[in-house]
Amino acid sequence: MDTYTFSQLSEETLKTLVTLDGKYIAPEAWEKMQIALTAEEGRQLKELKSKLRHRHLLVMNEATLWARAIYPMLMLAEQGPVQAWSSVPLEATYPTFKLEGEADGGLAPSLGGRIQPPYLIVHEAKRGLHAPDPLYQLCGEMLAAAWLNWERAPNPEQEIFGCYTVNDSWVFVRGVVSDIETDKPTFTLEFSPDYNGILDAEQIVQLLKFIVAKHLKELNNG
Question: CA 20 to 30 Å from 192, out of 47, 134, 142, 173?
Answer without folding.
Answer: 47
